[in-house]
């Protein structure tokens, strides 16, 4: 998975049967949450973010969000449980440095305000999924 871009990953997820898609994104967020060091080699940060977004896209709160495009909708994780939303939330916290086990990462983006808004929006959708027990 090391050399795979996030859009390619989303396309690959969309091609998987729903159960395999759910298993794939679950494994990524679990690895990031349990072992943040994987972000330095095994799992690039953009791929971890794509997996988190695929989980968030499977929650009802994602509907109508500006980041939910056709590609992400096709890659959305089906049947997101509160446990999976919680894992994705923990992985997002590791990724953006809110978790004490996080490692310092440099995410290069052209529009920092838009990136921050996206990360905050993903967090809100995941928090709602966790609270509502989807």
| Overall body shape | globular
Helix content: 55-70%
**What structural class results from the helix and strand content?**
mainly alpha
- Percent in strands: under 5%
State the total count of DSSP E strands.
0
Q: Which stretches of 5+ consecutive residues score pLDDT under 50?
A: none
Global mean pLDDT: 84
Q: Mind telling me the C-alpha Rg?
A: 13 Å
Distance between the termini: 29 Å
Note the run of SSEs as H and E: HHHHHH
Q: What is the number of helical segments per DSSP (H or I, 4+ residues)?
A: 6
Structural write-up:
It is a single chain. By secondary structure, this protein is an all-alpha fold. It contains 6 helices and no strands. The protein has helices spanning 6-15, 18-34, 45-57, 70-75, 82-96, 112-132. The relative contact order is 0.17.
């Amino acid at each position: 998975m090391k050399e795979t871009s996030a859009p390619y990953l989303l396309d690959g997820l969309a091609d998987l049967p729903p159960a395999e898609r759910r298993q794939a994104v679950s494994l990524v967020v679990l690895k990031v949450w349990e072992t943040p060091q994987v972000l330095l080699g095994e799992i690039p940060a953009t791929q971890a973010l794509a997996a988190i977004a695929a989980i968030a896209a499977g929650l009802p709160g994602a509907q109508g969000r500006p980041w939910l495009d056709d590609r992400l909708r096709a890659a959305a994780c089906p049947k997101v449980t509160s446990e999976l939303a919680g894992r994705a939330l923990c992985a997002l916290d590791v990724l953006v440095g809110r978790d004490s086990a996080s490692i310092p990462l440099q995410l290069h983006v052209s529009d920092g305000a838009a990136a921050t808004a996206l990360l905050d929006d993903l967090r809100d959708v995941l928090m709602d999924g966790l609270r509502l027990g989807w």
